[in-house]
Amino acid sequence: MRRAIFPGSFDPVTNGHLDIIQRGCKLFDEIIVAILVNPEKTAFFTVEERSQILAEVLKTIERGDCRVTVDSFEGLLVQYAAEKEAHAILRGIRAISDYEYELQMALMNRRLQPRLETVFMMPAEEYSYVSSRLVKEVFQLGAPIEGLVPPLVEERMRQKK
Ligand code: PNS
User: Fold this and answer.
1) Residue of minimum CA distance from atom 1 in ligand 1
2) Which of 18, 94, 100, 154 is the most buried (most CB within 10 A)?
């Protein structure tokens, strides 16, 4: 039974995130999509909204036999992973520019919890430039975000505007 944590802000979840979860499902029996509760960051969606959106869109992806659940956490990721008895942290790497930040986090997490591995997966090329930050930016400036996020996310963003 291999369990992974897929941590992030998911503000909002993008098609790139979903692509990584689908790929992760080929490697793990269970993936916990864990939303970081970060009171210092001004978010577009509340943690509850993000959690509800994630739960909905996860119903639509290819999971095979993999169990995919949504949760939220505060504090250290390695501590949360230990509580959940996870074997790995799953992260997506889009481009070389992601690598430095991800390497730093992976090595710090390894120092804090040597038994926990970080597994990096590459999303499909079509999502290699998609980030939650850019999705919010172009949306707020009136550009279409179709194809970058699930339709439900676009709908919820329009309702919030
Ligand atoms: O999607 P994001 O915002 O890039 O995800 C970043 C996240 C949530 C993975 C990272 O900020 C994190 O793990 N935060 C929890 C606090 C923590 O453990 N910090 C030390 C990381 S080395």
Assistant:
1) 8
2) 18
Q: How is residue 47 written in tokens?
A: 């943690």
pLDDT tens digits for range 61-93:
999 999 999 999 999 999 999 999 999 999 999
Question: What is the C-alpha separation between 8 and 3, in angstroms, rounded?
Answer: 16
End-to-end CA separation in angstroms for the chain: 42
Atom of ligand 1 nearest to the CA of 34: 8
Measured between alpha carbons, how far is 92 from 22 in angstroms, rounded to an integer?
A: 11
Per-residue pLDDT tens over the stretch 128-137 = 999 999 999 9
- The verdict on pTM exceeding 0.85 is yes
